[in-house]
Design goal:
Elements: H1 3-10, H2 21-48, H3 56-63, H4 77-89, H5 96-105, E1 112-115, E2 138-143, E3 148-150, E4 163-165, H6 168-177, E5 183-188
Parallel strand pairs: 2-5
Antiparallel strand pairs: 1-2, 3-4
Length: 194
Amino acid sequence: MTIAELLRLLLPPVAYDRAGPYVGAVIEAEARQIEAAIDSASRVLDAMHPDTGYALEDWERVLGLPEPCAASVDLERDQRITAVLLKLRGIRGQRPQDYIELAEALGYTGVTVTKFRARRYDRAKYGERYGADEWNCVFRINVPHSQLRWRRYGSAYAGGRYRVFGDAQLECLVNMRRPAHTLALFSYGAPLNP
């Protein structure tokens, strides 16, 4: 049953001729307006949930995205949606587990964090080099997947790189969250020995 038919049923049978041309025209016009309002409400409902991607530009504007260090990076639409969801979830910690959760939210699995320490006389193993105290402030994000993306002729935009290494979005987000006195290294592919 259409909205116009429902509106006709609401008319009192004695006062109005439901099949009359003027009443029919008014009912049809009102039915179109009600249908437009229902469509608009469904669009607003879609815009309320950022994972739908509807009104993505508005979500990015409100949340201050893209992040300043990722502004020059060309992100795909799904990466932009992930950035909005990450910002809303507020993964902000500085523990190794927080960096792992951040990488998992970006779609990575098996990510580990290696914390380095300065080599000391009584703590070093035989054959290890002695390091400076700065190594206490260095950690490495180990991403087991190789991050090499190729662009092909015809699919790349003018001036775009044909080969991209790493993940600028992950590196940007980690570097924004790390303590200021630390240094984050990134290893893509098989984890390196510390």
